[in-house]
Design a protein that fits this description.
By secondary structure, the chain is α+β, with helices and mostly antiparallel strands. The chain contains eleven helices and 20 strands. The protein has helices at residues 14-25, 59-78, 94-110, 119-125, 148-163, 206-210, 255-265, 267-271, 304-317, 360-376, 381-387; strands at 5-10, 30-34, 49-50, 82-83, 87-91, 115-117, 136-140, 144-146, 166-169, 173-177, 180-183, 186-195, 215-224, 236-238, 277-280, 286-289, 293-294, 325-335, 341-347, 350-355. Bound molecules: flavin-adenine dinucleotide (FAD).
């Protein structure tokens, strides 16, 4: 069968773009299909946090650092705004302090570069961190801030100009069969097809997704207007609730006690999956979130009580010159209960690749590099699905 291209990618979010870039760097001819005129999924709705500090120690953490290097390369080559701001986890309760103390002690052995700060050292790094009640913070220098709206808009053009990737925006892929891809009234023939359709896991290959255990997860987000006078937040800020959210902190013996206290004292945070983080983009806007609601709990209409809980918590940890909220939105991603990356090969050389851990901005470049090295070497998805389990 004569090929139109070596590789067809379905989806113009970060997973599709990362796979298109890796394939093109392997010398492959690539076409990328995005059903909308511009990507509108999870990849333009997130914080823009590249977050190695939260990733499971070992292979996954190492891949997040590889992704970080790719973002820095892209910032230079594609002219993206990036801030290597690092992050602070603020401890305001003794059980939160216990977890970050334990993590800081374990960090060198686990491969993390971070250290414990006193309250005075914390406010020296972060102008906005509230001093009242602050017991200390975990400082990590490895986190980046990118602007997802800018990055996802610019990357397709970069791939087209630098690598000749063919862009087919506004073309939904309706069927894939044995290397043939139906989109935009044409049938394309590709040597390898990579489905990166994000939270739309029911249209193409519904049986594989139904068997996968993947669920939908909805997050509510907010942003302020640009802060006055060029005020800068400094590092990304996270509160004590975030220690319960990311897998890296599971190594800490005090974590179960912290979780127990949070469940007892603030059941609504647990009910809505709330943990509170803040980042600041290049425009000076502070992006604030988030919550986690699953499947049947997901409504098209946002819950004002979730925003109120997030903002109440934020007020205790952060003082902004202008806290007025000017934007509210939600995003949905595909979530697997244990795997940060879901891989399947429903047909020979047709792969489903889904960032199912809520960390696609952090992980996608590292995963794509790894997948393409393996696919080019003849290793299939099924082998990797096991090795990628959280
Ligand atoms: C609110 C929020 C905050 C987050 N914050 C962070 C963060 O700070 N850091 C981080 O690392 N991760 C974060 N995440 C997770 C991250 O955004 C996701 O893991 C990532 O964006 C998923 O990328 P994706 O390409 O799989 O999906 P998407 O961005 O949703 O892209 C999928 C694309 O496929 C297209 N598509 C689907 N079906 C077809 C078809 N049949 N034909 C053609 N096109 C199709 C869709 O139109 C869509 O554009 C956050 C997620 C959310 C929702």
């Amino acid at each position: 069968m004569a090929r139109d291209v070596d590789v067809a990618i379905i989806g113009g979010g970060i997973v599709g773009l990362a796979n298109a870039w890796s394939a093109a760097r392997q010398g492959r001819s690539v076409v990328l299909f995005e059903r909308e005129n511009r990507a509108e999924g999870a990849s333009v709705r997130n914080f823009g946090m590249v977050w190695p500090i939260g990733q499971t120690a070992g292979e996954i953490h190492r891949r997040s650092l590889r992704s970080r290097e790719r973002w820095l390369e892209l910032a230079e080559r594609a002219g993206l705004w990036v801030n290597p701001c690092g992050s602070l986890h603020l401890a305001r309760r003794p059980d939160e302090l216990a977890v970050i103390e334990e993590f800081a002690a374990l960090a060198p052995a686990l491969g993390f570069e971070c250290r414990l700060l006193t309250p005075a050292e914390t406010v020296a790094k972060s102008l906005g961190a509230r001093t009242a009640g602050l017991l200390g913070a975990l400082w990590s220098p490895t986190e980046l801030c990118i602007d997802p709206r800018e990055a996802i808009a610019k990357l397709p053009g970069f791939l087209a100009e630098e690598y000749g990737v063919q862009l087919r925006f506004g073309e939904a892929v309706t069927r894939i069969d044995d290397g043939r891809v139906w989109a935009g009234g044409k049938t394309w023939r590709a040597g390898r097809v990579v489905v990166c359709s994000g939270a739309d896991f029911r249209t193409l290959f519904p049986e594989e997704f139904a068997a996968s255990g993947i669920r939908k997860c909805k997050l509510q987000m907010m942003r302020t207007s640009p802060q006055p006078g060029g005020w800068r937040l400094g590092p990304h800020l996270a509160g004590g609730l975030t220690l319960c959210h990311y897998t890296s902190f599971q190594e800490c013996p005090s974590l179960p006690a912290l979780r127990d206290r949070v469940s007892r004292e603030t059941p609504d945070f647990v009910k809505y999956g709330i943990h509170v983080m803040a980042s600041q983009n290049g425009l000076g806007e502070v992006v604030i979130g988030d919550s986690h609601e699953y499947d049947e709990a997901i409504s098209p209409f946002d819950k004002p009580e979730i925003d109120r809980l997030i903002l109440d918590y934020l007020r205790d940890m952060l003082e902004l010159p202008d806290p007025t909220i000017v934007g509210r939105w939600h995003g949905v991603y595909a979530k697997h209960p244990t795997q940060p990356l879901f891989l399947a090969e429903p047909q020979p050389n047709t792969h489903i690749v889904s960032a199912t851990g809520g960390t696609g901005m952090t992980m996608s470049f590292g995963w794509a590099d790894d997948l393409w090295e393996r696919w080019e070497a003849g290793v299939t998805n099924q082998t990797r699905a096991v090795a990628c389990q959280a």
